Amino acid sequence: MATITFEDLQKNETVRTYIKMADQVLNVSGYTEHSYAHVTRCAGVASNILAELGYPERQIELARIAGFLHDIGNVINRDDHAQSGAIMAFIILTQMGMPPEEVCIVMSAIGNHDEKTAVPVSPVAAALILADKSDVRRSRVRHDGVPAQDIHDRVNYSVERSQLDLDAEGKKITLSISINTELCPVMDYFEIFLNRMMLCKRAGDQLGLRFSLLINGMEIV
Predict the structure, then answer these.
(1) Which residues pair with 159 in a beta bridge?
(2) What ranges in 30-165 are assigned the alpha helix state H?
(3) Once rounded to an integer, what is the mean pLDDT over residues 168-180?
(4) Closest to 76 measured CA to CA, from 22, 153, 142, 149
(5) How far apart (Å, rounded) are the C-alpha atoms in residues 134 and 196?
(6) Tens of pLDDT, residues 23-54
(7) Alpha-carbon distances of 34 from 27, 31, 171, 186, rounded to whole Å
(8) What SS3 class is residue 116?
(9) How far is 33 from 37, CA to CA, in rounded Å?
(10) Distance between CA 46 and CA 142 in Å, rounded?
(11) Per-residue DSSP letters for 128-160?
(12) How far apart are CA 16 and CA 78, in angstroms?
């Protein structure tokens, strides 16, 4: 068995191809950016959450790996992409020589990151959920100008600032979002993100944290 690192995955051409092609599929399907910017951010945020909470170094590294791989299933189809991605990750990590116990941790985190079916089954899964669902930003919209039709584009484009803050001592994690309400009413945010925010609340519970959502300075959750 081998100790597989985040850097090993970053340099792996198969992984990089899957990430790139998965994002191309979503581009054609009309979804926001899910390429290197998104998965690298998720890898960093997920690992930082566990690091600030004092988890072991190897668990932190597995969160980083899960964050980087979590969206590769989109290369097959957006529907059930979490489960597809988990199976793809199993093949990749097993071929690289990762121990089965670690493969299981990464697989279950990836397989449980989509709000339709997700359960924060472990600290790694919970950290990935919080990292993924907090990545709301204008730069994820693929075209210039104010999008008028697609609600996902409209919501992401309207977000002027998004920040996830962890108070480890106070046992609280807060997602603060500033929305330009001239571009998108707050209700549009809730139309597509309410289930995600409730999932973040459950992820916080898994980590012993209270999840809080602030929109334009007002506590919503």
Answers:
(1) 179
(2) 36-52, 57-69, 81-96, 100-111, 123-133, 151-158
(3) 95
(4) 22
(5) 9
(6) 999 888 878 888 999 999 999 999 999 999 99
(7) 9, 8, 30, 23
(8) coil
(9) 8
(10) 24
(11) HHHHHHT---GGGS-SSS---S-HHHHHHHHEE
(12) 18
The vertex-75 CA angle with 134 and 36, nearest 5°, equals 45
Which residue has tokens 């090993």? 8
Residue with tokens 């204008």: 138
The pTM score is 0.93
Q: How far apart are CA 85 and CA 65, in angstroms?
A: 13
**Helix, strand, coil shares, percent, the chain, to 5:** 60, 10, 30
Q: Which residues, in sequence order, are CB contacts of 35 under 8 Å at separation 6+?
A: 19, 20, 23
Give which of 198, 175, 39, 61 is closest to 119, Cα–Cα.
Answer: 198
